[in-house]
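Researcher: Structure prediction, please.
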Amino acid sequence: MNALRECLDLIATSSETLGIEETIIALLALAAVVSVVTRFLRLPYTVTLVLAGLVVGVSGLLRDLQFSADLVFLVFLPVILFEAALNTPAAYLKRYWPVIALLAIFGVLVSFAITTAGLRWLTDEPIAEIMLFSALIAATDPVSVVALFRRLRADRRLTTVIDSESLFNDGTAAVVFAIALMVLREPGSVGIDDAVLRFLWMAAGGLAVGLAIGYVASRLHRRFDEQLLELMMTTIVAYGSFLLAEQLGMSGPVACAAAGIVVGNVGRELGMSEGVKQAVTIFWEYAAFIVNSLVFLLIGAQMDLRAIGDQIGLIGLAFVIVLAARAVSVYASAGIGRFLCPPLPGRWQHVLVWSGLRGTVALALALSVPRDTPGQARLVTLTFGVVLFSLLIQGLTMGPFAKRMGVAGPAHHPGT
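Model: Predicted structure follows.
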């Protein structure tokens, strides 16, 4: 209840003329209008939401609005992760799991290393601050891309790889970020051995917690055939796995994603009646739609265009380096993965590179940095700027690029 109250307060306390209820209704109405507009403009929904949020922010209507890291992590992120995991088919995940694991772990570490090296070489920024930024920007957030691919009827195997990677690289990036933040705030407190142990504890521990909760929940679903009860159970699993893992010092995102995959492929398919299954699917699809709508509107509304303009050179350089790091990590992971699973077609790899948008997780991590941390304000501005570049440049061109790569349309049958 406190988290819900915080969510409502953070969305609407800013306006001097609107109350909480009116502000929420106004944001939802704006999201509905944007949804209708995107159907005519054929633009990615989330990108259009960000643009609408920019208009709201510039207008000053919600001038004191706060986009809180706690709001994202404790309220929004479990919904986004669980819904995506719930709809991840186990057959494709099992088929491509080696390359997905490489992208989500090895790829994040490679992106982190290359971004750190590039910014260190080309700028005079402090190395600890560079490492912190490189960690938080390493995770992809292809929400709008996956929605676009579904509309374009892209190959389900490709969307599964993209979606599954984003589910788990959030956790990897969060772990690396936590270690980098500790290094920045307490220099010399974390050695290589300690960093590796922390990484294993957070990542592997989160996976174990998620699998265990997902398994228990799936067993319980077989014992009931009550629609509302089972909807409540899935909600408990989503938030419970996330919060339990966080309380144990593990990765909440990894736990939530793992639990969602188990419930989606075992609990829903084997333990739910058709009516309950349909209700669960519709409920989580709607919840994710609402959450994503609010998140991307708030992202746009919180963009400080003046601060971004002041740092435009550094932001542009960082965006190019991040994109280059993404390309290296994808091609390297695909190259290694071809020895472990069916190889990814070359066109898929190109699409994977360009679909690596940055968004919610990067901003939440940046905003979670304590204000007394050296370079905190600059870090937030740099992160918002790179996210804006990513959403506008990659997001707006993803549709034409996917068509050019031949991955859209029902007639497409890439090699396996």
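Model: Residues 40 and 344 are 33 Å apart (CA to CA).
Researcher: Thanks, that helps.
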